[in-house]
Amino acid sequence: MKLGSFRCLGAAACFLAICVFPVATSAGAPPRVVHVFVALADNQHQGIVPVPSFLGNGEDPAHNLYWGAVFGVKTYFKNSAEWELLRCNHATKMEVLERCIFRNRGGADVYLIADAYDGSQIKKCVTDFLAAAAGAVPENIWVPTKSLEISIAAGGAADLLVYVGHDAFMDFQIPSIVGKKEGKPRRTIILACASRPYFASYLRATGAEPLLWTTGLMAPEAYTLQAALTGWIAGESDQAIRDRAAAAYDKYQKCGARAALRLFATGW
Fold it and tell me: Do 213 and 265 touch, CB atoms closer than 8 A?
């Protein structure tokens, strides 16, 4: 952890530096955290309608349809006026090819953690998403600020869990993950084809609540997620968030306002 211009002189001095320069903390409420699990599009390992090879290489996040392409999570949020990219780096999990951390530019103290999973590891991606939705495997992540780094709660301790990618349960099943019923409410957004019928039984087991999911085939691109998050950060109603998502989807997909609204659902 880099702390200003302090220079460590040996292991003892490094330990002293951590003690002398404590982590920045907030006297108010802790930051709200959105944790996004992205299964990179993969022509070879997923049952998707094939896309151009440079977009459908699940081992290449830089150009992938759901990550590095113009409407991919990393690129879209990086270019957004609403979000500031703080850092991108290789994550600690082998399956995660890149992790990006964003901070909302508005007045709200909100961070977004986005993990790009190797497309061949989509089963691991949905399993990790559901485990987090169940409140399992909480994670503390260090994020940079203008002065020090702070620790935020992600994984099973995040406020909002998001899955983006192919609907894996069209191809395979996994054991249900039973979640905690106590603790702070955990909410989810699932941007995948027909996620409500395919994810419903899994999500019920986790104990999390669906904020936004889908009823039919769709393109899980990042403009829909950003629109939903704008409403969530502002404290809007679930229906207003659904309306925002549908409006954004229609804007880019030109599918018609009514069709877009039918595509998205909130709650059970």
Answer: yes
Number of Cβ within a 10 Å radius of residue 2: 8
Q: Phi/psi of residue 175, each to 5°?
A: -65, 145
pLDDT digits (tens, 9 = 90+) for 75-127: 999 999 999 999 999 877 999 999 999 999 998 899 999 999 999 999 999 99
Residues 122 and 90 sit within 8 Å (Cβ to Cβ):
no
Output phi, psi for 230, to 5 deg. -60, -45
Kindly report the backbone phi and psi dihedral angles of residue 46, in degrees, each rounded to the nearest multiple of 5, phi listed first: -125, 150
The tokens describing 62, both together, are: 């830089």
**In angstroms, rounded to a whole number, what is the distance separating the alpha carbons of residues 41 and 51?**
9
Is residue 144, in this structure, part of any structural domain at all?
A: yes
| pTM, rounded to two decimals | 0.89
Would residue 189 count as lying in a domain? yes
Could you tell me if 142 and 149 are in contact, meaning their C-beta atoms sit under 8 angstroms apart? yes
Q: Which domain holds residue 33?
A: 27-215
Sign of CA dihedral 225, 230, 232, 233: positive
**238 belongs to a structural domain:** no
Domain count, the chain: 1
Q: What is the DSSP string of 109-139?
A: -EEEEEEEE-GGGHHHHHHHHHHHHTT-SEE
- Report pLDDT digits (tens) over 161-191: 999 999 999 999 999 999 977 777 899 999 9
Helix (H) or strand (E) holding 195, with range, is helix 195-206
Gap between the Cα atoms of 209 and 211, Å rounded = 6
Give dist(CA 32, CA 59) in Å, integer. 30
